[in-house]
Design a protein that fits this description.
Strand content: 25-35%
Largest sheet: 5 strands, antiparallel
Shape: globular
Number of helices: 0
Oligomer: single chain
Structural class: mainly beta
Helix content: under 10%
Distance between the termini: 18 Å
Number of strands: 5
Radius of gyration: 12 Å
Order of helices and strands: EEEEE
Strand order of the largest sheet: 1-5-2-3-4
Length: 69
Amino acid sequence: MDKWMSMEDAPRDGTPILATDGQTITTVYFYARGSVETGGSWNLVECGAYAEDGEWTPIYWMELPPLPK
């Protein structure tokens, strides 16, 4: 995929994805505490920090591109 989609549709199975707040792009994955139904958070892959800590909240996502051959 090569278009930005709403975070509501982002995978919540731990798959790394590209995410943006409209200004910054970074790689994140969803960490479910217990289960997706009971909540969880978007973690930044780079440093393991929570993305939704009030300082940075992703609004769009897209799949990571394939690795070069």
